[in-house]
Amino acid sequence: MIRLRIRHRTTYRYREPVRLLPHCLMLRPRESHELRLLTMSLTVTPPALVTWASDVAGNTLATATFQTMVDTLTIDSDVEIELNAAPWPVFDIAASAISYPFRYSDDEWTDLGALATPQSPDPFRRVHDWARAFIYSTPTDTLSLLKDINAGTGAGISYVVREEEGTQTPIETLERRSGSCRDLAVLFVEAVRSLGFGARIVSGYLFNPDQQAAWPWGAGRSTHAWAEVYLPGAGWITFDPTNRSVGGTNLIPVAVGRDIRQVMPVVGSFVGMSDAFLGLWVEVSVTA
């Protein structure tokens, strides 16, 4: 078990005062048998009315509503958690799903719904064919197949830091052979969905005791994105294609969703001149 402190500051700056519309904030870690939230403080400057709710995926969502015109918006989150994820997890996969292909139960298919359906257009089945190339025999070991796709995503796609907004489509990531953590996570999720798996995107933080290390990528300096795949018996299994890892020993999940757009930490807009927006700055610190 390790105790971690997560400090996350988001700053927006504008050329002149603007009117802020409500901002949606996903900054509260998801509690589970592996993660316990100890404390959390959320400070919004200028002061805002903050209301809390749960979305359809069970994520905690804060909505900040503003009353004044501003030229700077700062959102500070300070969290302490206890993380108790096994470094070498053993997954108790149901006998019916140990070998691929397998079939989810009717109830599982109904509940997974769109999580088991590719969300990005792939008219020439390029993502599907790329994923099928990891199937070396039929039937094959399910967990080994998923591990191979996870490792193949990280090995075949070069990691790059992309500061610009938005996420590449899986086809763009395959063509460019490079992408950010969110691009790799989306490619992995769409690839396994094309093979019939239920999968979802996860956003949160990655803890690296050595902030200067080249691996894991992105640790402690920004938010991180990875994936989870549902397997009967084992439940949701964590896959981080950016770091080619399995299990959540150094991952702090905040939000899960069908699409990367549903798990963004801060989403909002403003009313003002089209050139009023100067920039966005994000600072993240994850320390023991």
From TrEMBL:
Pfam families: Bact_transglu_N, Transglut_core. It comes from the Bacteria. Residues 173-243 form the Transglutaminase-like domain. Transmembrane segments: none annotated. PANTHER family: BLR5614 PROTEIN-RELATED, SLL1233 PROTEIN. InterPro entries: Bac_transglu_N, Papain-like_cys_pep_sf, Transglutaminase-like. This is Transglutaminase.
